[in-house]
Write a structure and sequence with these properties.
Layout (H helix, E strand, L loop, with lengths): L2 E9 L6 H14 L3 E8 L5 E10 L9
Antiparallel strand pairs: 1-3, 2-3
Amino acid sequence: MKRFEYQIVTFPMDRKTSLIEMQDDLNLRGSQGWEVVSVSTSEFANVGHTAFLKREIAAEPLEEAT
């Protein structure tokens, strides 16, 4: 069975370069095996963008029957 780990990353959108920085950060995480599964924006809290990421983790070796 596949197993995953998750990350939640928030990117404030307070400068013109914010989207470029977000792209660079997500590309770096992608090279580490992370995959963006969803992005959310929040106008109420002025948070910017929140990205939800996952990556597969190695399956634990099966225990041998004794």
